Amino acid sequence: MFDTLSDRLGGVFDKLKGRGALREQDVRDAMREVRIALLEADVALPVARRFIDAVTEKAIGQDVLRSVTPGQMVIKIVHDELVETLGGMEVEGLRLDAKPPVVIMMVGLQGSGKTTTTAKLAKLIRERHGKKALMASLDVNRPAAQEQLAVLGTQVDVATLPIITGQQPVDIARRAMESARLQNFDVLLLDTAGRLHVDDALMAEMKAVASVSAPNEVLLVVDSLTGQDAVNVAQSFSGEVPLTGVVLTRMDGDARGGAALSMRAVTGKPIKFAGTGEKLDAIEPFRPGSVADRILGMGDVVSLVERAAATIKEADAEKMARNLEKGKFDLEDLAMQLKQMRNMGGLGMLAGMMPGMKKAKAAMANSGMDDKVLVHMEAIISSMTAKERANPDLMNAKRKKRVAAGSGTDVQTVNKVLKMHQEMARAMKQIKKMGGLKGLAAMFGGGGMGGSGPMGGMAGLGGMGGGAGGLPGLGGPGGGLPGLGGPPRIKK
Known about the structure:
eight-stranded mixed β-sheet, Four Helix Bundle (Hemerythrin (Met), subunit A), single chain, 434 Repressor (Amino-terminal Domain), alpha/beta
């Protein structure tokens, strides 16, 4: 997400930070490069121009140029301006506190991911807000569109309006409203029809549906990969339909970021959610502050903690917390950590969210390392007996050969996994000496790592703060996963 833009800006700011003092011309030269980076990221020209003017005006002030760390001051100004461009620090979620049924109308062009996004939102509303939701497909043009929503409804455990062949969108909307009232649904999501492009017929249909359903939210779903075209579509819809927000899909594949950076400034409508993958739980509230952090390579700890809370089972977290207090860490615990890392999005996703891990993420990509590494490591541990997992000291040469054959790897890779476990086990003992989780939490001001909370299960990854090579705590310095020496060798 935003990788290309982030890399370009990172290069510009590395030059600024490398200077002891800054002249006004240095700032202007840097802003010229930032402007080019924004335009190459497909940011709308007026937005890029306004952004650069605002940053330059603040950055050439005497307080900045005469400060002890002028480069850092300029980066902070850019960060604050990014946040402002993206919509400010406030996160704008769904307005669900109105009289039920709260109607959410989903609009957008064909192929933008509207139907899948409807199901994702319904799942989020049910799981995070505890609301009873009903979905209704008003798309009578696209073949099997209504059936697709019904299938998705089954997958996310959300009710869908029964299909009546031949019924038109406005009539379906009326029937959906009546069903939602009679069956006491809290939220009604209307998945409207799309077109290949904005036309009069589409807009007339949207207005007619809005008039009979009086939606509390009208969310425009746009594909972020279309860049400036997404912004143009948003402008077209906002002029015809009373939009309340935007959902950007395929944000996980958007290396440029032009749509996100332009949308709020051009349309005046907040980006409320970002689709981050194909899975039905791959949707996140859009946080301008977190997005600005990620663009500038500062990580996204808030989203990381939320993802951990959603994917790490409470029982596993409590077990890990108990083991931490005892200073115990066996191969079963390591296998649990590896599985949790995969569930949270894999190595690349985690490295991108951790502050200061941008270089580690790049090293992983350059070494050809991917999430198959985690799968192979899990296979090695799974090929051991229960006694071996509980007591890794049993692993002699004969046992290692058997495990290597069973996992399709080699003895060298088995040794690397065992070494990784030893280093993490030593880290657990150090945590015990510091007073366990409570002592560790006290060192960090009482936050983050205490108790058996959702991040408890990730504590075995060791310190995440430094190292140019990979994920510190998973071995020594070097590229990829330190201590693992790159991807494991797989026998053919």
